[in-house]
Amino acid sequence: MIVVGSVRPGRIGLPIAEWVRSRVEGAGHDVDFVDLRELALPFLDEPHHPSKRDYQHAHTRAWSARVEAADALIFVTPEYNHSYSPALKNAIDYLYAEWQAKPVGFVSYGGMSGGSRGVTALELVLSSVGAVKVPTEVNLVAASKQLADGAFAADDRQNGGVDALIAQVVAYGEALRPLQAR
To answer: GO molecular function, one example (predicted)?
Structure first.
């Protein structure tokens, strides 16, 4: 699963996520592509704690099923004020058990840090719900300069980094599958 973490108009996360998707599919893997703007989850509106999995709303049950079906996740995330987007936090908070033993990788973007400070904040939240971060991450510094005709034009180093990230996410997914809450 690839999750596009920004919902802003004019976001560069979508073309970056499309680039990541092309690399994942090019490596022979299926992708559930989740654009949080299209998913359109309202602010967390479940009356019960997600650990109970007593979901009252169809949108939560659908989101739960998608995350549960995923072998692994790659989050394409911006950095907002040394953190990550509120839409991404909301999507994570909807669920609990579904994140258990899910390998997660990060492709981040932002100014001089390339989104790395947002990833640091995101790691804390995802580890608290049982997700497992893979060692490789890709931080894209000034990624907006690599947009051409609505597409992200990655260089060889970035392609190699994403390919290494994909390989790790897949390997961790296979190793952790017996521990996931399916």
So the answer is: oxidoreductase activity
